[in-house]
Each structure stands twice: as structure tokens, then as C-alpha cells.
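Researcher: We are triaging several targets before committing to wet-lab work. For this one, the compound of interest is pyridoxal-5'-phosphate. I'm pasting the protein sequence and the ligand SMILES. What I need is the predicted three-dimensional arrangement of the protein with the ligand bound, expressed as C-alpha cells, so it can go straight into our comparison scripts without reformatting.
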Amino acid sequence: MNEPITVSRPFLPPLAELLPLLEDIWQRRWLTNNGRYHQELERALSDYLRVPFLSLFTNGTMPLMVALQALRITGEVITTPYSFVATTHALWWNGAVPVFIDVEEATGNLDPAKIEAAITPRTQAILPVHVYGNPCRTAEIQAIADKYGLKVIYDAAHAFGVEKDGASVSTAGDMATLSFHATKIYNTLEGGALICQDEATKKRIDFLKNFGFANETEVVMPGINGKMDEVRAAYGLIGLKYADASIEKRRQIALRYREHLRDVRGIRVMEDLDGVKHNYAYFPIFIDEAAYRISRDALYEKLKEHNILARRYFYPLISMFSPYRSLDSANPANLPVATQLADSVICLPMFEDLTEKQIERIITAVAG
Ligand SMILES: Cc1ncc(COP(=O)(O)O)c(C=O)c1O
């Protein structure tokens, strides 16, 4: 049996580069609470991503929760069912009501043409996801938000380093959230960030992620603990030096996959979009069962037999999970495109040190 190929494999920065920073942390014994490496990583990430203000977090779910708190969102929020479940859970934990709308077939992103029909007097915000790192139609979404006075929070967990027309996609909307989970393109083991547009909002976010403390004796809002510690911030500083190289290696793998799979009957691959610098975070393919001759699930099982552990991201739709499926907007008849994507998608292994031999094994199993 061949060795298993997992769908992703975490990047680890060279240990030798990390050790001096760990020794420094051990010596100074400043472990968390806005320490030196935390401050350095906030600066380094703001520069790298070219975003105005960025706050580090302990994971990528907490910034979603804090963004909703910071913008005082408690009503209906128009969102996508085609994402990782944390996107919707964050709404629920804030007492907001998710209103699912359909997505676009080409990108998997929330379809701006469906937003207006879902707006009610209770709508307060839009929460789109740049799924697989494909940028949403941010200008169209913003125009609708402006027309109806809605806030926009982007879940940019997949979009680290993605640019559209030369600007970071994470500058779009009122806020954007990132995840630095172990399986993401750039990781801090667990970690995340919240991007905002002005200093006053960053201050509010930083209060919210530290229990609402303004100083030793004053608590100015009911905050939570969302802080990142010094060890992970130091790890993140070293890892950031390798982010560009990681993205380039993934790009090469995506090109190989596309070259061999785009012409296979019954397989659709996602191509680069005009004006977009992609990050190649995932490599989804979509199976048309009639043309491919076996179903998506049969392919998934076949790959498993070959020890290729592909994953069906994002199946089932979030709207099909038990906490959400009784919502009116969760009716599959309201979400035909998202349903079709969820039923046909399979994400092939994608990580930077995927070997030539492994790529060949995967291509042969899928195309052969
Ligand atoms: C789209 C999306 N949103 C949110 C999250 C949550 O991030 P985390 O796992 O860092 O909490 C993830 C991934 O894990 C994700 O893929």
C-alpha cells in the first residue's frame, strides 16, 4: 500500500530559526498580553498583507465573534451556506440570525444578485466568505450594503495574501477575518486576525479581545479572551518569511493539476480569475456524474482505496446541519447552486511539499 496523502500538511518553519526566539521568551518570561512578538507580528502582518489595521487572535473563529460584537450585530445577517461551519456558528453565538442565500457556480462565493431579495427591516449585515481564496464581488456587495446601510464582514480565512487589482482582498468591507490554523497556507499552529479600517475600531477590537480592560482598574466593555500568546507570535514571525515561497510552490502544483485534469470529461477545475493574485489554498474539482461516469462519492472512496485522503469541502452545506436546517432560508430549494456544488465537490491534496510522485499518483487516480 502506498503511503497516505492527506488533503493538507502543515508547514513548519525551521526549528533552528525559532529556537533563539523561544530562548528569549523563556528568559524574559513575558508569555502573553500584547508582548514583544505579538506587537512585531501585528506590524509584520499589516505590512505583508498591506492592510490598515490588524489585531491578532487566538484562532480564526474568535475574530468573527468579535467583529460582530464590535459592530453590535444582533439581527439578521445575510451569509453563505458554502463555507466551514465556524462562519455561521459565530452568528449564532452572537444571537444573530443567519439568512442563507445562494452562491455563484464559478467561484462558490455568495451571489450579490441574491442579496437584495433577502433584505428585511431586521437585516444588519452581510457576511460573505472568499471561499477557496476566490475574491467575492466586493464592489457589488459594498454598493448594496451602502444602499441599505448594512455592515459587511468578510470571512477571509482562506484568502491570506490574495490580491485583486493590486490590493489585498482583506481591505474590503468594514472588517475581514483571517485564520492561521495549522492547515492554512500561513499558520501559527492555531491563530487568526481581524482587519479593520481605522484606529478607533482597532482599539475597540483590542479591548474586546482582552476582557474589555482599558487599564488595570477599568473595564469598558464586556470583552472576551481572544489573545494570541508570545510563542505562537514568534512562530508566526518566522513562518511569515516563507509565505511567498509556499504560495509559489502551491501555484506550481495547481498548474500541474489543471494541465492534467481540465480536459477530463466530467471534471471542472477552478481557473485563475482576471486581475487576481491567488494563494492556491485549496484545489477543488467538481464532478459531473453523468459525464465522469462515477459519482463524486464513488471517486472519494476510490481515492481512499489508493490512500489519497481527499476531502469534500464544503459538504454538507452549513444550512443542512441540525442547528440551522429548520431556518426558512436553509431550504435547499433556496440554495440550488450551493447544493449542486456541495454534492459535486472534492478537494484534492494541496500542500507545498507535495512531491512529483504524489502528484502523479493523484492525477492517475482521478484521470485514469
Ligand atoms: C471559512 C472559515 N472560516 C472560519 C474558520 C475558523 O478558523 P479557525 O479554525 O482558525 O478557528 C475556518 C477554518 O478553520 C474557515 O475555513
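Researcher: Any quick observations?
Model: The first strand starts at residue 5 and ends at 6.
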